Amino acid sequence: MVNKRVLEYPRVWLLIFGILYLCFLVLGLFWPNSIVVAVLKVGSIFLCFLFSVIYSRKDKTLIVAMAATFAADVILAINNVAVSGVVVFSLAQTAHFVRLSQKLVRNLVSYAVIILIMIGVAIIRQADLMHVVGGVYALLLLSNLFMSFRWFKSSKKLPAGCAFFGFLLFVLCDSCVATSYLSLTEILPGFLYAIANYFAWVFYLPAQILISNSPKHVLQ
How does pLDDT run across 126-179, given as a tens digit for each residue? Predict the structure, then answer.
C-alpha cells in the first residue's frame, strides 16, 4: 500500500513553486531589478535542488546537476555576464549529459573532440571567450534535449516527460538569454534586453522544476 504522505509532499511543493512563480511573474514585470526578485529567482532554484535531494536521491548525477545549476545562478545573479557562470552551467549540462546518455563513453569522447576543435578554431580566430563558452554550453544543452526526447519516446514515463519538456523550456529560456546578451552588446536593439530577461525566467523556472523531477532511478 502506498503511503499517503509520500503523495502529499509533491503537492505541497507544487503549491510552493506555483506561489513563487506567480510572485515572480508579477514582481518581475514591474520591479525587475529589485532585490526581492533576485532572491525569488535564486531561492526558487535552490528549492529545485532541495527537491531533487529529497525525491531523487537515488539519482546522484541529477543532484550534482541541480547543485551546479544553483551555483551558476548565484554567480550570474551577482554578474549576469560572468563567463564563470556559463562555465558552471556547462558543468551542469555535462552532468545531465552523463545521466541521459545511453552510450556514455563513446558520446563523451565524441563531444570532447568536438569541443576541442571548437576551442582550437576559436583561439585561431581570436573569438570572444563568452562566445566560445556559450557555444560549448549550447552544444551540450541541445544534446540533452535530443537525448531526453529519445528517452521520453521510448519510455513514456513521467520522469522522461519531465526531462524532455524541461529541456525544451530550457532551450526557450536560453534563446531569450542569447537575445538579452546580444541586446546588451548592441548587436540587437536595446529595447529587447528587458523583455528577453523577463521571458527567460518565465521559461526557466518551470524548466528547472520539471528537470528536478526527472530522475533516472525512481524511489520505490
Answer: 767 788 888 889 989 999 999 999 999 998 788 999 999 999 999 999 999 989
Helix-helix angle 192-212:60-78, to 10 degrees: 160
Phi and psi at residue 158, to the nearest 5°: -55, -50
The residue extents of the domains of the chain are 4-212
Residues 106, 108, 111, CA angle at the centre, nearest 5°? Answer: 105
pLDDT at 4 over 70: no
How many of the other CB atoms lie within 10 Å of CB of 44?
Answer: 22
And the C-alpha cell for 185? 552588446
The whole-number pLDDT of residue 22 equals: 92
Residue 9, pLDDT score: 56
In whole angstroms, what is the distance from residue 162 CA to residue 100 CA?
A: 13
Mean local confidence (pLDDT), 5-13: 61
Say if CB 144 and CB 96 are below 8 A apart.
Answer: yes
Sign of the four-CA dihedral 46, 52, 57, 61: negative
CA–CA separation, 24 and 190 (whole Å): 23
Is-contact 49 17, C-beta < 8 A? no
- Cell 551540450 sits at which residue? 140
pLDDT tens track for 90-109: 999 999 998 998 776 666 67
- pLDDT tens by residue, 48-57: 999 999 988 8
Give dist(CA 135, CA 155) in Å, integer: 30
Q: How far apart are CA 15 and CA 86, in angstroms?
A: 30
